[in-house]
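**Sequence, structure tokens**
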Amino acid sequence: MLLSACTVPVITGGNVATGAYRGIPVIHSDLQKTTSTGYAPMCDGFITDARSVNIPRIPKPGVGVRTSDPALGATVIRVSDSAFGEVHKPAYSTVQAWNADESLLLLYQSGSSGSGHQLRDGHSYEFIRQLDLLPADIEEVFWSHVNPDELFYVSAAKRDFGHFKRLNPYTNDSETIADFSRWCGTSLPVAGNDVHMQSYDDDLFGFRCQQADGGHIMFSYRISDQSVYIQSINEDSLSPLIAPVPTPGGQRFWYRGKTLDNTLTSSALTIDLQSYSEHSSIGTTAGGQDALYQVAFNPSPRGCDRDDFGGVGHLVEHNLETGACRNIISQQQGYPYPTSSTHVSALAYKRPGWVVLSSIGSRKQAKYFTNGQAAPALFSEIYLSNTGSNTPVTCRLAHHRSTGKNALNGGYKPYFGEPHATISPSGTRILFGSDWYDSGAVDAYVIELTGYKRR
């Protein structure tokens, strides 16, 4: 139950951007056509079915070396040089790694040399500088969708604790947009336990925090008019962990299996999924409608629009405007039951409907790295799906060779070894992390697809 709605029309203080929507160019995603950008069909040369394949054991590529994946064929470049115990990785699969024009790349680093967010050249992948920011969480650094020169975050630093900020990555200069301590006091506002992005016009954001009396609230913030809508949370033990997520169009929020209006008070749709806590990513359909792309291990309550497998699949599309459910990658196409530790990234907002996934698999399945037997489809794989037709096409790109949470070496948090594959805004590149057979270090790798033009 949501209680105590509170509308605060204006925040005083802070530097505020206009938030005007400037438009995002969409790149044609038809598989059969080459666009003016020179983009060739996405799956040429890649496996597009569910056959089993061997995973040849290969040494870790050298830094900057372009290597063709021996089984699946994608060009993979190792872009970091982690020492034993160090980590370089994407912030998360649901958070942009490249800025709006892909000239800059963001990596998270941890280890003996320190921790924080690295800024790198978006094309050469060379290190530029450490960013001068301490966000609420490593995942909560949000590139602008339209301005390549800015990113957003809530500060956890003592000097500006709880301030919602804008940072210029070229200069490391930041400014306060709003001070959220007015509602959160000494509690840090966060974007949720499962972080997603802001609206595509960079105007609408969603957060949660704990108030001085111990109660929890969720709230929205709109930059253009500084409006805030606040709702108290009083449902169950999970509620304080979840924040409302603005959808790309900025007309609704995603929250606990439902869509809410912009005042966070009225629920328009209850989405047909068993668990809202499975890995997912907010994006848009090929037609530009708000959508949730999710891995589903359990059947949908209403059967996912008569899907033969009830909505169980590696990739299920939930239309957040119509409520429609569509299974994209499932046993229907011959793929196995969803692979454990599968993550989803629907961030290619210039190619709506394109989604990249990474799957790890169980500890027992690690035998396929050494036994010479063909591994089941999608084990240890990075793969890309174009969901924009009645018969979506999925191409299997590369094996990431990471053990993720099964890692035993290095001393870092094994979670950091999860690939968390992240697609670029144009859909032409994919960033992922790998511990490379539990080597004791996690490095960042980039897959460059056919349509990418190196600058």
About this structure: Residues 2-448 form a domain with the Methylamine Dehydrogenase; Chain H fold (CATH 2.130.10.10). The mean pLDDT is 90. The chain has one domain: 2-448. The longest strand covers residues 2-8.
